[in-house]
Amino acid sequence: MSDTIEKVKCLIIGSGPAGYTAAIYAARANINPVLYQGQQPGGQLTTTNEVENFPGYPEGVTGPEMMVQLQEQAKRFGSDIRDGWATKVDFSGAIHKVWINDTIEIHAETVIISTGASAKYLGLESEQHYLKLGGGVSACAVCDGFFYRNQEVVIVGAGDSACEEAHYLSKLCKKVTMLVRSDKFRASKIMAERVQKTENIEILMHTETEEVLGDGQVVTGVRAKNRATGEVKEIPATGFFVAIGHKPNTDIFADYITLDETGYIVNVPGSSKTNVAGVFVAGDAADHVYRQAITAAGTGCMAALDAERYLAAKE
């Protein structure tokens, strides 16, 4: 064996609430976890300005601050937190092989995948500007809708998730304008009918976003174009929600781990186990339903406990 190969009991791939919680539990169980933070240390929450729905923070907390605190808590119990991300895996044998940054080879007895999912955005320069500033662009109505109470917002999307988020926002906001790019919803009939029947949701079909408008710091509106007529209009709004889907960060596992049709890892119901013994999953890499910090943290706990029991059974 090469001297460059490192052997570990528990390797955690990815950070965020799932990865850091797994590290906390694994470290307390003395299985010496090594965690690589991934390309976005802290995960999606590092792009969330305010978190007010995570238990234990009565005054709320910023996403980046919460991730720093979770990381420090994991370190306190001896977790080895490192920069870098997994670029290749080989789960074909009893020893799980993972390559970090294409250079470091790790042989792990157990692996916890907490690589999360990335929200899809339109890719507009103005959209990315206000997203980075935390100035009114969001991909999670449940996370951020509260901040737009009694205000006017715009949401983009045509699927079940977009309809669900639009309906959620309608309970909080004065008005919700829903932009649908084609002439029909992709959502199920019942979800489409729900938004169509909601009085304060205005649906603009054949409509795409040209630009997110603002004063440089916060969103003030959206410029949208009707693809059928060519008409361009400016819609006043303080919030711009994007609900065009998420992409799980699971591509490198596809040859070994069972994924569903959209790329989410399929776990054994009621556990964090995957189809590969000794490989577990936590957080949004397997969760396309809830996608909340608290549910990710819960599955991080499950994965660490499952990994600990797997190791104990081998002894």
Describe the structure.
With 315 residues, the protein is of the alpha/beta class. It is built from 7 helices and 17 strands. The strands form 4 sheets. Strands 1, 2, 3, 4, 5, 6 and 17 form a 7-stranded mixed sheet that branches. A 5-stranded parallel sheet has the order 8-15-9-10-11. Strands 12-13-14 form a 3-stranded antiparallel sheet. Helix 1 runs parallel beside helix 2, helix 1 runs parallel beside helix 7 and helix 5 runs parallel beside helix 6. The mean pLDDT is 93.
How many helical stretches?
7
Class from secondary-structure proportions: alpha/beta
Could you tell me the strand content as a percent range? 25-35%
The end-to-end span amounts to 24 Å
Helix content: 25-40%
- Mean pLDDT, rounded to whole units? 93
Summarize the biggest pleated sheet. 7 strands, mixed
Inertia-based shape = elongated
Low-confidence stretches: none
Q: Using only CA atoms, what is the Rg?
A: 21 Å
What oligomeric state best describes the polypeptide chains here? single chain
Order of helices and strands: EHEHEEEEEHEHEHEHEEEEEEEH
- Count of β-strands: 17
Brief descriptors of the model:
alpha/beta, seven-stranded mixed beta sheet, five-stranded parallel beta sheet, elongated
